[in-house]
Every structure is written in C-alpha cells, then in structure tokens.
Amino acid sequence: NTYDFGLIGLGVMGRNFILNVADNNFSAMGYDLNEEQVKALIAEGEDPQKVNATSDIQTFVSSLSQPRKIMLLVPAGKIVDSVIESLLPHLDKNDLIIDGGNSFFTDTDRREAYLKEKGIHFFGSGVSGGAKGARRGPSIMPGGNKEAYKEVQPIFEAVAAKFKGEPCVAYLGPKSAGNYVKMVHNGIEYGLMQLTSEIYDILKKAGNYSYDELHTLFDSWNKGRLQSFLVEISAEIFNRDDDKGPGKLVEKILDKAKQKGTGKWTSQNAMDLGIPIPSIDIAVSMREISALKEERVQADKLYNRPEPAVMDKEELAKWAEEALYFAFITTYAQGLHQLSDASTEYGYELDLAVIIKIWRAGCIIRAGLLEDISKAYTEDKALSNLLLSPNFVPKVQSTVTSARNLVAYAAKNGIPLPGLSNSLTYFDTYTSGRLPLNLIQAQRDHFGSHTYERTDMEGIFHTEWE
Ligand code: 6PG
User: What CATH code is carried by the domain that includes residue 310?
Assistant: First the structure.
C-alpha cells in the first residue's frame, strides 16, 4: 500500500492533523518513536488502508508515494534537525519535507539550503489553530519552492479551514516566508491576548463586572465588530465553573503566563528591521513581568495605589468595546507593517492580501475585522500601514476617544493597561506630523557632533553648541 501523505510526530497536533487528512480522502502514514502513540493512532484511524502508523523509519518512508510529502509536527529546535537526518538516507530527489512547527525562520533558511543541495524540498509551514484546528481545519502558512508546493497543495487545500468556501492556505513565498508569517501571526496573537486580558481586568476593577456579566458582554461583542476567536473563547472561559471548589475556574488560574518564543522573536526581529511594534513588544514584556509573581506580591505590599473609582457599567462597556476595537486595529497594523518590510528585506515577495485572507478562519487571530483589512490590502497592494487606508480612518477616528478615556481613567486609578496605552501611543506618534525628536538630534549633535538635518534647507549640519 502506498500512502499519499506522511506525518512525523504523533502528539495531539500530529494525530489530529493526520485524521483530518484521512477525512479528506487522502491516505496517510504516521511515524513516531513512541509505540503507544502509534497504537493510539491506528486505533483511532479505524481503516489502516487510510490511516496507518509505524515506529520504523524505513517502513514509514517506503510506504509513501513519490514524490514523498512528509510533514513534521515536532517541537521546534534541534529535534527538527535530527528528524531530518534520520529521514535523509531513505529519501529520493524531489521529495518534500514540511516543517509544521514554530521554527525560527533562520533555522528554516539553513535547512532549506542544506536540503536543496540534496535535491530535497523543504517547507517551513506554520500551522495555526491548536489541536482543534488541526482536526477540523487549521490555517496553514507554507513557504518554500513554488513548483514543489503544487505537490502538497491539494492535500493542504482539503484539510485547511474554509472561509466562505475558500481554503485558509496559500503559497506565501520562498525560503522561510511561511515560518516568518506564522511568527508575526503569533506576535499579533500575543498583542490581542494581552489586550483582551486588560479589558477583562478593567471591567472587573472599574465596573465590578461579575463573571456572568463578563460572559454576557464578551458574548455580545463576539456578535459584533469585535467578533474573533479570542473574544469568543474568553466568553467561554468566563462561564466555566471551577470543578475543584466554588467560583469560576479562571479566578483560580495562576497569573504567570508562559511563552515559547514566537512573540519574543517577532519583537526582536522588528527591532532588527527598525519597525515599531510597541503593542506586541509590551505583550512580550507583560509575560515576563507576570513571571515575577513573588516579587510582584512583595512590591504590592510596599506601595499604595488608588482605590478605583467605580464607573457606570454601561459607559465602561462602551469605552471598552471601542478601545478594544481600536487596539485590535492598531495591533494588526503593526504586525502587517512588519510583514511588508520583512518581505522586502528577505525577498519573500509576500502578498499581504493573501495572508490576511488565510487568517480569516482556522487560526488563533481570526477575526471579523480581517474581512475589512483584507479589502484594504486588496484595493491597495502597496499599502504601507493600515492606518493610512481611507477605509480605516473613520473606524479608528470614531473609537480612539474611548481608548483615550480608558487609558486616562486607568492611569488615574492605578490600573495597568499596557497594551492599550502602547497602542494609543503608537497611534498618537505615528499620526504626528511633528515629533520632539528634533531635540534628540540637537542633543546628539551637542554632545557628539552627530550632525542633523533641517526642515527648511537641504544638507547636513553641525553646530558648535558651547
Ligand atoms: C497557533 C498558536 C500556537 C502557539 C501557541 C503557544 O497559531 O495555533 O500560535 O502555534 O504554539 O499559541 O504559544 P506561546 O506558548 O508562546 O504562548
């Protein structure tokens, strides 16, 4: 028997992905060193003609139809290299290896170049949507050799999530384009998660919202312009009772957020490219601050903070909805700006309209708003920043006041809104024709003769300040 598709790494993501492939009438063979996982997949797959699995690499490779399409769903890092090495002796020219994990993009470039010499195609292909997405339809972000992509395209299009019938997968660009896009997707994910958590906090502290009320509010937001996966699951989370005691489960969850690196990489690389993404940077910093739990508890006792003045629930909800919408837009704007610059820098030739389209379903950052964003980039392929899109000016203009109101209230009442503040700062500075950085230039010239340019004359100037 020959199978259409091979998958290495039968953890929950891998197992779900392979079952999804089989649901779509492609036969698939799984491989994992762990015999238990092999057995579990065979049992779940029911028909071994359609879904099978093995712990023997040779059996695995020789059971696949050529050119072989082998996807890796293993943790990013050295494991990917060792899996590649174990496959290599068994592969033939033109076979495809697809890394579905969150690998760092320069690792993907290295692996792609290494395998190219051996005539093997390597795809860095972000997969978003978690375990459920893998089973029911993820958003898939592949990058690599364009011709070779055609080999796997029918399978990917079949298994991907569908937005109004359109599959949420597309060839994105050469080399590490797919991993890079997935990295920035995750950066945006960090930003949106931070924002929703802040809004939850202020609703509780300033509006005394109960969890039932939060559930109802987020649920209603999810039926409007804030419709998004993260708002939807937050509503669900607020509704979940703790099964170990009274109250809601979310209240008992330790406020230390973990991270696997993709958000940090997004920020680090944005710094390298010189692209400002403060809404994402602060989301990474907040995970770091959250990790300092013991110190925070200690510091909490050393300082007084104002007792928040209680706000009218309705008014607060209006501010919160508008502010969150405003901040979602500015966060997407920053991530997309990074993608457009990275595309030039790394030669990815990204089509932002296509990327936004494949984010409309399946992935973690899917949101109703992406329909409008996709229109903005379809109308103007060269749009350098979403905030410059004429369609977005009224959306932003009509909601920024609530962001200001909320940030001002929060600052006064000692409630941190770091993501929202940074989004507002980004907006207020990006939309400032004149910033006070003329003084910085003067200081640089004063202490270091670093020179400056003038607003009224061409040329490079230096002044003897003393
Ligand atoms: C997705 C997610 C996923 C990521 C988790 C965890 O698109 O399905 O981005 O790929 O691994 O969100 O990320 P952190 O552990 O860094 O929060």
Answer: 1.10.1040.10
ipTM: 0.98
Cis status of the peptide bond prior to 154, with omega within 30 of 0: no
d(CA 433, CA 255): 40
Q: Which residues are annotated as a binding site for substrate?
A: 102, 128-130, 185-186, 190, 260, 287, 444, 450
Closest approach atom of ligand 1 to CA 263: 16
How would residue 58 be classed by pLDDT, with cut points 50, 70 and 90?
very high
Quick one: average pLDDT of 124-131? 97
Taking only the tens place, the pLDDT of each residue in 334-355 is 999 999 999 999 999 999 999 9
Q: Which residues are catalytic?
A: 182, 189
Do 370 and 459 have their domain in common?
no
Tell me the longest C-alpha to C-alpha distance in the chain: 85
What is d(CA 149, CA 363) in angstroms, rounded to the nearest whole number? 21
Kindly tell me the burial class for residue 140, based on how many C-beta atoms sit within 10 Å of its own C-beta (0-12, 13-18, 19 or more): buried
Q: How many domains does the chain have?
A: 3
